[in-house]
Amino acid sequence: MKRTAGRATHVGRAQRGVTLDTGMLIALERRKASALALLKACLLSHARITIPAGVVAEWWRGDHADVLACGDLEPLSPLLARKAGELLATTGQSNAVDATVVASAAQRGDLIVTGDSADLVELASHAPGVDVAGLTTG
What pLDDT score was predicted for residue 5? Predict the structure, then answer.
């Protein structure tokens, strides 16, 4: 539900899913207002939330396992690994986790939510149907 001029209105179903990157998990762990607001909007609209396994490896330090409950953990399949490698070859970049995030999102046409969009935007420009949204500070 969202409020408009004091009235509650129904929030519609999301038209696309959301793939989270490491920056988003860090922001959720730190309880940043922008990350919490985005997560709430995703949950209210029933958006499918995906967290690639490589993101967990980059983020995980043994605390805050509850953060992972917000989405589906996606394993790194051989096909996903190849797609990520192709993105790296095309762009000349070297961050395999970023490339995996984009390749993952490309499978579903997801929006990627990140704390640092610079490298992801370049990778996503080679993945049709993928958009990148950076978190605001807060």
Answer: 46
pTM of the model: 0.86
pLDDT of residue 15: 82
DSSP string, the chain: -EEETTEEEPPPPPSS-EEE-HHHHHHHHTT-HHHHHHHHHHHHTT--EEEEHHHHHHH-SS--GGGGGGSEEEP--HHHHHHHHHHHHHH----HHHHHHHHHHHHHTPEEEES--HHHHHHHTTSTT-EEEEPPP-
How many domains does the structure of the chain reveal?
A: 1
CA atoms of 11 and 14, how far apart (whole Å):
9
Range of the domain at 120: 14-134
- Over residues 55-90, the pLDDT tens digits come to 999 999 887 888 999 999 999 999 999 999 999 999
2 belongs to a structural domain: no
